[in-house]
Amino acid sequence: MKNFSRNSKIGWAMLFAGIGMALELLLNWRLYVPLLIGCFIIYYWKSHQGRDSKKLYLIIGVSLVLIPIISTAVFKIFIMAAAVYALIQYSKTKKQAKKIVIETIPPNQETKVNRKMPYIKNMFSGTQKVVNEIFEWDDINIQCGFGNTIIDMGMTMLPPGESVVLIRGFIGNIQLIVPIDASVTINHSAISGKLNIFNQKEELLNSNVIYYTDGDDETASRRIKIVTSVVFGDVEVRRT
């Protein structure tokens, strides 16, 4: 146990807490029933995403799922243990001196900061599709709550060098279509879901995997680095 890293210990604690909450829900039918109803409502919402009036079902379903989980004794114990652990770690950091390096710039040198809104934006719920559209390329960094995300980069003029695509989602599927002449690196993390990378399929359960295309990626004129993470959902990356 002493060789475990801090992240490993936290991961094991979360795993045991999840198992404990699942057992408590199974043994207490009063908590189990609203959980099943909530899952059914979320499934019903997902099959009718095209209608705005159905978003109410999402709120009700998520509430019915979260309330039983929060009501379990294991969850309360886990929260208290996490708070104690955070206080201990905070007290340790206060005792350790930090080395701060300050970089200065010559006087009379002003830095101009420009701001722009990206073409692809965050989305809390619903389906976001960017297919067969021409847009000015910016590195993609978005978060998606509930719903599917489809981005087609086949019509995009990627600049030379490395382009970054960072997508984080909660529940939903992600599909990315990349140019055929670009080298690709995929770093994907998921609690549960399927991963389809250029027709190479894999089932994931609390896993993190990295895929990269053959060839000398450092000398390729156009490189795409894709970083995706979802809690529950499938991810597909394919060529145009």
From TrEMBL:
<dbReference type="InterPro" id="IPR047793">
    <property type="entry name" value="LiaF_C"/>
</dbReference>
<feature type="transmembrane region" description="Helical">
    <location>
        <begin position="57"/>
        <end position="88"/>
    </location>
</feature>
<dbReference type="Pfam" id="PF09922">
    <property type="entry name" value="LiaF-like_C"/>
</dbReference>
<dbReference type="GO" id="GO:0016020">
    <property type="term" value="C:membrane"/>
</dbReference>
<feature type="transmembrane region" description="Helical">
    <location>
        <begin position="12"/>
        <end position="45"/>
    </location>
</feature>
<keyword id="KW-0812">Transmembrane</keyword>
<keyword id="KW-1133">Transmembrane helix</keyword>
<feature type="domain" description="Cell wall-active antibiotics response LiaF-like C-terminal">
    <location>
        <begin position="126"/>
        <end position="237"/>
    </location>
</feature>
<dbReference type="InterPro" id="IPR024425">
    <property type="entry name" value="LiaF-like_C"/>
</dbReference>
<keyword id="KW-0472">Membrane</keyword>
<dbReference type="InterPro" id="IPR016975">
    <property type="entry name" value="Cell_wall_LiaF"/>
</dbReference>
<protein>
    <recommendedName>
        <fullName>Cell wall-active antibiotics response LiaF-like C-terminal domain-containing protein</fullName>
    </recommendedName>
</protein>
